[in-house]
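Hey, sorry to bother you again with one of my protein questions. I've been puzzling over a protein and I'd love to understand its fold better. Take your time with it, there's no hurry, and the full record follows here:
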Amino acid sequence: MKLKSILLGIAATAVLLGVLVATRMMVLTHKVPEFEIREVETVALPEPPPLPPEDLPAEDVPPPPPPALADLAVTADVSQPALPVVAMQVDPRLVVDTFFADQPPAPLPTVARPQPRPVTKPVVKPPARPRITAAPPQPKSQYSLGELDQTPRLLRNPSVTFPRSIRNASSGRVVVRVIIHPSGRSQFLSVVSSTHPELIPLARRISNGSRFTPPTRQGKPVKAVMTWPITIKK
């Protein structure tokens, strides 16, 4: 064991020596360049111009002269308020009128206040109501006998034959409603009553073929409706 340790120490020492020798050889192989210093020419520069007075450094500027005694003045203390000074002399021997605080003061003069002007409201007239005029009565399409100037008068009627089926009577009566046109022509409307049903067709024929005087109202021809009793004989 001791021999091994000695051999290892010798080997390490040999390695270190080899490294040192190699390093030295590398330094010697790299030569440091050599420089030759020659003479340097000197150049004369002109002197700079003098600086103006305002550009002089602070340490070169002379301090201002001290103020004269005549320019010195007392500065007022602004913290103290100014007090009014009365130049008039007061004589303490003057008589002063006495007054009492319990007496009421004299009343102040009254000033008349201007009265406000009355506000007059504009009179608004109500709108005029439109006059409603009664519309003229519209003419009727037909009038009754009482509204006519006079009752129409029969001018002619067609002839008819009394039916043979009615043996126990020699005449009959049929009441009908007819329209009389402004021309006077009559027109059948309806049957009001009849004594014999066989007489109704004859009354219808008479109603449609008769002529009357034209019915008038206030002198103008109009259409009228009337009840007409028709008597039919053998």
